[in-house]
Design a protein that fits this description.
mainly alpha; single chain; Integrase_cat-core; RNaseH-like_sf; Blast:KRAB-A domain-containing protein 2; 150 residues; 7 helices; RNaseH_sf
């Protein structure tokens, strides 16, 4: 079918044939193990995203930049400052995710609550009659002639 296709058979997890892949797998394993130990966790599925950003934002000597920067053309931004409108002074005081959640809850509770939020509801009397009443023509009854497909 594809005469140019060459299938190379190798042993999975064979370090001699896949050295760089094995080294990378070992690095990820070691980084994940360290994350699990440091965070007193057994949930590797949570830690892997932190390992991923750490690995992808680290300088690669071969390409002279991080893999993230090579792919996206800019350094990876980590943290809240890039996507939130929280002042930096407040961000600097946050230590845990719970602190952020508490801040969000407090800011929602501080907003004035109105009893009747109807400002976005449109009264039907405000709609011109030409729009309010659809122009519907009587439908044609279905007959044998209208059911035929050409």
């Amino acid at each position: 079918m594809w005469p140019e296709l060459v299938i190379v058979h190798g042993k999975p997890r064979h370090p001699q044939s896949q050295g760089s892949i094995e080294r990378s797998n070992g690095d990820i394993h070691d980084m994940l193990t360290a994350w699990l130990r440091d965070n007193e966790s057994t949930k590797w599925s949570i830690g892997i995203k932190f390992v991923q950003i750490q690995k992808n934002s680290a300088l690669n000597k071969g390409i002279g930049r991080s893999p993230y920067e090579a792919l996206f053309g800019k350094c990876a931004t980590i943290g809240l400052t890039s996507e939130t409108k929280i002042p930096k002074e407040i961000l600097m005081t946050l230590e845990k995710e719970e602190d952020l959640l508490k801040l969000q809850t407090e800011s929602v509770n501080d907003q004035p609550v109105t009893e009747n939020k109807t400002e976005n509801i449109v009264d039907a009397s405000d709609i011109p009659e030409s729009i309010a009443e659809p122009n519907v023509e009587p439908s044609t009854p279905i007959t044998d002639e209208t059911q035929k497909v050409s």
